[in-house]
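Why do we bother with a discrete structure alphabet at all? Because it lets us treat a fold like text: something you can write down, compare, and reason about line by line. To make this less abstract, here is a complete entry for VTT domain-containing protein. Read it the way you would read a sentence in a foreign language you are learning: slowly, and without expecting to understand everything at once.
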Amino acid sequence: MIAIGPAMASQPAWLKAATIIVGTFILEDVATVLSAVAARAGEVSIPLALMALYFGVAVGDLGLYGLGAAGARWPYLRRFLTLPKRERTQDWFSANVIRIVAISRFVPGARLPLYTACGFFRAPFLRFALTAVLATLVWTTCLFLLAMRVGGWLLAHQGGWRWAGLAGFVLCIVVVGRLIARLQTVSQ
């Protein structure tokens, strides 16, 4: 969500949905938190926010798979991909696609390298897509509900400082995700 406030509330539903979807392509967890706070404030409906989040995150996940598949075909594109450092075979990715996708949805920083690797090593697309969509439904809903709870408390109790509290909450989610991703990189 780019703006939360009266200007957001007066926008048409399609524009709110489009803003949320674009936000998921930039930073999906931040888009989820801001959408939840906007829903809590009554500026966007909960069903619209959730549907736009689900759609944007799922399309982004499928796009990462497609990016990996394109990198397998075109060597020029391959140099832009972040693939796992250890050599993994196509058979391993095919056999473990459900586990890879489900776990990486909940581990910040893991989706980009693992989803593109699934595409690169031609893991079964249907299993990938179904698992990605189901994991997205669980993760996004949990984060959305948590953000609604925290955002509702900030909106109700922090007066003029609520936006500073909201910024701190969003920053905390981003920083924790980056720290976990960095720890994963160091451990590989």
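What the structure line is telling us, in plain words: The longest helix spans residues 125-157. DSSP finds eight helices and no strands in the chain.
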